[in-house]
Amino acid sequence: MIKDIVVPQLPESVQEGVITAWRKNAGDTVTAGEILVDLETDKIVLEVTAEAGGILDSVSRHVGDRVKPGDVLGKIESTVKTGVSIPPPVKPIVAKIEEPKPVEHPLEPSTAVPQKFAPIAENPISAGGELTPAVRRMIVEHKLNPADISGSGPDGRLTKADVLRYLEHSPRATLKLGDAAPELVATPQADIQPARQPEQRTHMTPLRARIASRLVEAQHTAALLTTFNEINMQVVKELREKYKDLFEKEHGVKLGYVSFFAKACLEGLKKFPILNASVDGDDIVHHGYFNLGVAVSTARGLVVPVLRDVDTLSLAQIELAIADFAKRAETGTLRLDDLQGGTFTISNGGVFGSLFSTPIVNPPQSAILGMHRVQDRPVAEKGQVVIRPMMYAALTYDHRIIDGREAVQFLATVKQSIEDPAKMLLD
């Protein structure tokens, strides 16, 4: 009985996906519920599973193909009765070809020609088994001895890549039988030109294309402006150093800077709620909740999972949620609802060493805070020059609905909350 492997119904607003990996090959045994295909959309990575156990009969769509709901990815030959085990596919038995014995034609001692290399059989056989036609042809053309070449294929069989690698690293390998080895002539280093790498063209992944579209949308539709301030991180740094071990032992997660900034932004959003609003056409939507997006970088691109009702979360709960988001973003197991509903975003470029940047608003939100690297700098305190751990903070906002006064005061509130966290944490 043959069953189709079908692309499932995708989440709302997702039209198509790209196959990023097949977990099984044609001929492999699969079980019901086993993951077969990784499918990347412009928001999340989905896993297509087997509806029934059996053998993967064929694969009709391959890595890099764009697919839509209902498309057939392959076929599974399932068992008629449940519970019947299916033996693994039997490997074909390849009969080894006997190496023909060379015909002896003894030469007179005076006319014997010394050979530089061992004689090669007409049908050379590797120690690991039969040679493929392509490998056999290369062995014969270059007069090679298969026993001199290490095989990397199944059961030690030689592959075409093994022979090419041997030829590349063995100058004598291309000599004909009886030829003398050429003298090596030193070439001046200046004459050796590095080989240019050819151009490569690849399609954007759906996630990267979606990121590009939204960033261009933000630049084209919003009146973006950025204001800056610098924050003395001394008190927060001392708090982390003093309580980091106890915090990690108690909550199972490290105490970072983002949780402090989440609380500080919450203070600012309560005072200046327009930064928590969004634009919908000619309307301003004022949100009665605080859903904080936290930008997370992955190998596939930037995603912004959302901390919901951050005003109800403690520092430990925020750190735990961020750690969970980072782990699931890297493994591609974030859900679509993890990425929706944010009202304000924090982006921490400091983890990559960024000292200064202008973040871009994540539509339809109206503001984003950019954190940066903490760096010791000389500052003036009470008429004295002292060294303090300082951070530049950047706030990019939509000037259509947020005035400069509100943006500057919001950022000043964040600065004050970080420099004197006791007031913030004690409410």
Textual characterization of the structure:
This protein has 427 residues and is an alpha+beta fold. The chain folds into 3 domains: 2-78, OB fold (Dihydrolipoamide Acetyltransferase, E2P) (Beta Barrel), CATH 2.40.50; 117-174, Dihydrolipoamide Transferase; 211-425, Chloramphenicol acetyltransferase-like domain (Chloramphenicol Acetyltransferase), CATH 3.30.559.10. 25% of the residues lie in helices and 23% in strands. The chain has 8 helices and 19 strands. The chain has helices spanning 133-141, 160-169, 206-221, 234-251, 258-271, 315-331, 404-419, 421-425; strands at 2-6, 17-22, 29-30, 35-40, 45-49, 54-59, 66-67, 72-78, 224-232, 278-280, 283-285, 292-294, 296-298, 301-303, 306-307, 344-348, 367-371, 375-381, 384-398. The strands form 5 sheets. Strands 9, 12, 15, 16, 17, 18 and 19 form a 7-stranded mixed sheet that branches. Strands 1-8-6-3 form a 4-stranded antiparallel sheet, with no helix packed on it. A 4-stranded antiparallel sheet has the order 5-4-2-7, with no helix packed on it. A hairpin with a 2-residue loop joins β10 and β11 (283-285). α5 (258-271) crosses α6 (315-331) and α5 packs across α7. The longest helix is centred in the middle third of the chain and has 18 residues, at 234-251. The termini are far apart. 26% of the residues are buried. The model is unreliable at 90-97, 105-128 and 173-182 (pLDDT under 50).
